[in-house]
Amino acid sequence: MAEPAITARRRRAVPPPRWVLLGMLLAVLAGVLLVNAYTNASFTPDHQHSNQGQREVPTSVVNGGPIISANSEQVRSYRLPDRTIALTFDDGPDPVWTPEVLRVLDAHQVTGTFFVLGSQVARHPDMARNLVAGGHELGVHTFTHPDLTELSGWRQELEYAQTQLALAAVTGVRTSLVRFPYSSHADAIDNQDWPVLIAAGDLGYLTVLNDTDSQDWALPGVDKIVENATPDGDSGAITLWHDAGGDRAQTVAALDRFIPMMKQRGYRFVTATDGLNLAFAAAGVDYRAESGAAATAGDRWRGQMLVWAVRGADQVLTVFGILFVLVGVLTVGRTAVLFLLAGRHARRRRATDWTWGPPVTAPVSVIVPAYNEKEGIAAAVRSLAGGDHPGGIEVVVVDDGSTDGTADIVDALRLPNVRVVRKPNGGKPSALNTGVAFARHDLIVMVDGDTVFEPDAVRRLVQPFADPQVGAVAGNVKVGNRRSLIAKWQHIEYVIGFNLDRRLYETLRCMPTVPGAIGGFRRQALRYAGGMTDDTLAEDTDVTIALGRAGWKVVYEETARAWTEAPTSIGQLWKQRYRWSYGTMQAMWKHRRSVFDRGASGRFTRRCLFFLSLFGVLLPLLAPVIDLLALYGLFFLDRTATAVAWLVMLGVQLVTAVVAFRLDREKLGVLWVLPLQQFVYRQLMYLVMVQAVVTALTGGRLGWQKLRRTGLEPVTSRTG
């Protein structure tokens, strides 16, 4: 018999993956989350911390007024004149309540002093600008609202400086007023507070405390807020209110009552600086304080960078939140669909009257492409040649230019139904096409050179061909080397992620992949599909999609089992999955235009690419958001809620695993490694997908990654 002509397309040079781009992306995301964590530092309403004694605090300060000018050289304090009130507001600006407060102030024609948080100024620049435009005064209330007594000196300065930069960028002014978070009256200053006041004074700040505290943050009711804010007799007062940090409806209503009430008692309303100047005048001090000095151009530029960083981090976290919900919906939706359709598939197959049709006894040709498979080729060929298919099995081993004596090992077996075809190295698709050309029979089984078949696997695999519409059959691939932890993780993935999915895809008539380890084909169907091509690195996915487009049914035969050798190192696993992910995307891109086809081609492609895009690319691409937000939550949010959410996700995965293992008749004992899988293996698969997408988007080409093999033992039958 003359040998058919063997052709191979020229292999293309492949540049390395874009590791630098991936590293930069991860670094940027980490930086964004850290910025957001810093600027979103949680704070509680103002309160007094425990008193540390007042021995170091001058008596003039403890018994003095709420405006304190204190530095290393001198200490002075001031009170407002009688019947003078300065309305001061903390924690803003707020997009909801600051405008409401301003509405009341404008209605009564009074101005206030707003001690703002720098992070809030960056987030709500329009509100800050409106305050300045309305003639109101701004003061520093730090950037993130920490307890300054617990911070080092440089951190205290940073809190002030960042707030000043935000004000410079947004309003064009800077301020000399400061109010510390959790501060109170002057007589509450203790030994722990005093160094903070001195340090701020050395930086040129004037500390503003309060005479009366409305305690509006406690929501005690409008009457109580007004009572708390009202000074005794006719004394002047700096009153403390809040325009952010929660529901401030009571604050707005109380202001609307408090201002006219105090005006009727003869009070005038001033800003803190104007009140200080009145105090200077009453004391005969020839000095006038100024408020709202112009910021320098350098401060404005640096402040703009800070504002962009804060707002950018907020927007990224918002996007992450949306993606978190999307991933959750996709995960739960996928699980629900799997339970429904995979369960239906299993019940139908286990029905007592289920059959594909008359027993298929036609002879079968098994094609084994082999390139340097000396470790496992003998066991693989023996398992194939010794199959119990009644029609007979022909094994065609195509040696694709091996340099390790693979072909000689097969020849030495001297099995009567095994042939060896030697050819120059041309790649797996070329070897498969060569094998098909040499095959004598119309039923073709394609296997990998490291795969060991159970004795009845070929017979069971070809039974679906009793249905003349079936063009290809996917077998049940099992991990044969399960001793290592990484192999156990792959075993779980094969059962859940591959075999359970195939039940779903068959039910929906959109099977995307007949696995290279065990797949059956009609010669006629392969001819329709154009054979195996090297257009992609996932030739099995490519040909399966082509078969579906041609109108052939592609089904899953769970009872046809083959055992493959899984990678045993992280590096080898990375190479394999990277090739799979990249090749799958290549196949999707290759067949993308057929989504617009009419008839069977369009229907199949739309379903197939939809599910592949949703669950094969989008979900694993977005799933790292779960882990990123989980880490973020553990460090910066509610740890209990974060842990509960993570456990719920793990519970969903565990239930899915139990169902998949039951359907596949596997033992559940190995599932003890599932929680551990969430901390290493899952993240590795995410990075594989991210790297594959980056490579695709940047135009990189990935070469074939040959894995190291040690070989599997022959099997008669395995379970569990």
Structure report:
Helix 16 (485-507) packs across helix 22 (639-663). This protein starts with 18 loop residues before the first helix and ends in a 23-residue tail after the last helix. 48% of the residues lie in helices and 14% in strands. The chain contains 24 helices and 20 strands. Strand 13 (364-370), helix 12 (377-385) and strand 14 (393-400) form a beta-alpha-beta unit. By secondary structure, it is α/β, with parallel strands linked by helices. The strands form 4 sheets. It has an 8-stranded mixed β-sheet, sandwiched between helices. Strands 3, 4, 5, 9, 10 and 11 form a 6-stranded parallel β-sheet that branches. Strands 2-1-8-7 form a 4-stranded mixed β-sheet.
Report, as a whole number of angstroms, the end-to-end distance. Answer: 45 Å
- Summed up, the helix count is 24
Question: Tell me, what's the shape?
Answer: elongated
Proportion in β-strands? 5-15%
Most strands sheet? 8 strands, mixed
Class derived from helix and strand content: alpha/beta
Q: Which stretches of 5+ consecutive residues score pLDDT under 50?
A: 1-17, 42-48, 714-720
Helix percent band: 40-55%
Oligomer: single chain
Please count the beta strands (DSSP E, at least 2 residues each): 20
Over all CA atoms, what is the radius of gyration? 37 Å
Overall pLDDT level: 86
Instruction: Identify the strand order in the major beta sheet.
Output: 15-14-13-16-19-18-20-17
Structure characteristics:
720 residues, eight-stranded mixed sheet, six-stranded parallel sheet
Compose a concise summary of this entry.
Helix 7 links the parallel strand 7 (177-178) and strand 8 (206-208). Helix content is 48%, strand content 14%.
